[in-house]
Amino acid sequence: MNFHLVPNLYKDNDIIYHYTTSETALSHILKSMKLRLSPRSLSLDPIENTEHFFSYSGCRNGEGIPADARRLTNEAKEKLRKTKQVCFCKNNSIEYENGMTFPPFEKYGFAKPRMWDQYGDKYKGVCLAFSLKKLLENAAKVNIEGDNINYITYRQSEVNHLSIDTDKLTRDGYDKYEQVYSDYLIKRLFNKHNDYVHENEYRLCSFADGNYAYIDIKDALRGVVISNLSINPFLYKGFKDTLTNYQNIDIQILSFSNQTLNIQSYESREKLYKRIEEAKKQ
Fold first, then answer.
1. Is the pLDDT of residue 61 over 60?
2. How far apart are CA 158 and CA 180, in angstroms?
3. Is the pLDDT of residue 97 over 80?
4. Residues 92, 215, 76, CA angle at the centre, nearest 5°?
5. Which of 111, 175, 183, 205 could lock onto 105 through a cystine, CB 3.0 to 4.6 A?
6. In 10 A of CB 145, how many CB atoms?
7. What angle do CA 33, 38, 44 make, to 5 degrees?
8. CB 91 within 8 A of CB 6
9. Residue 4 pLDDT more than 60?
């Protein structure tokens, strides 16, 4: 494996990765210079796309649920209904230990087979590399929140469930208690079952009105990793032309072959295409 060919850019722990299809990358993300956050209800994970269960404590027998608790529930449901998200993979901590000069590919967020399969168009898509710092700067401008995913078990999810405490709601006042409960709900948005731990996910969430939310990426995009199973002269030209609107974007081609991975620069593949075209003219 050509470990030494992985540019230092992709070893930077500020870099996070988003998998998608070539068509989506070219026709939408790179062209518009925006990344879309989609409704959480569309998530493939049934734990994420089901409604939150609300429960109550402190209610006295026969009194029912107080009006403030019902108000809090309705406002929380509305906020969750509007939740939109977009997901990324991070690098695992890339360290140089025990004389290992070149980290294994498993360390990199762009080299996750399950992500290429599920989100990268069955290994035929692309993986976009972003600066997390820049994304968060842009996210703050449009009230988008980001955090690392916290991987938990089913049991931990049950234990961490928080009922609406009607006594405390009355004692603390609506505004103070609403903030505490809202923080709890937001924190749950960044939980995921620990079976997904190898995704090493980072997530951005929005609660804006509308079906979708968007975040600017022009100054946050750093690189594009393209699968060798889809790259061809036509697609190559499409990426080359589209990326002229950006500055200093590194482009790599990830090759899946011989039960392993290799990575090579776009420039080396460009030379290959030129030789092919020259051969056709002869």
1. no
2. 19
3. no
4. 90
5. 111
6. 16
7. 130
8. no
9. no
Tens-digit pLDDT profile for residues 217-248 = 999 999 999 998 888 878 888 998 999 999 99
Burial label for 198, CB within 10 Å (0-12, 13-18, 19+), is middle
Distances, alpha carbon 86 to alpha carbons 32, 35, 49, 164, 267, in Å: 16, 8, 14, 29, 30
Backbone torsion region of residue 62, taken as left when φ is above 0, otherwise alpha when ψ lies between -120 and 50, otherwise beta: left
The residue written with tokens 């809202």 in the block is 182
Which two tokens mark 227? 């699968």
Kind of pairing, strands 15-20 and 260-265? unpaired
Residue 244 forms beta bridges with which residues?
none
d(CA 4, CA 104) in angstroms, rounded, equals 10
- pLDDT value of residue 236: 82
Query: How far is residue 77's CA from residue 181's CA, in Å, rounded to a whole number?
Result: 12
CA distances from 139 to 143, 218, 259 (A): 6, 13, 39
Query: Which conformational region is residue 16 in: left (phi greater than 0), alpha (psi within -120 to 50 degrees), or beta?
Result: beta
Q: How far apart are CA 127 and CA 22, in angstroms?
A: 9
- DSSP helix/strand/coil, 195: helix
Element (H, E) at 129: strand 126-131
Q: 270 and 235 in contact (C-beta within 8 Å)?
A: no
Task: Identify the CA nearest to 165 among candidates 184, 148, 187, 192.
Answer: 184
Q: If you average pLDDT over residues 109-115, what whole number do you get?
A: 94
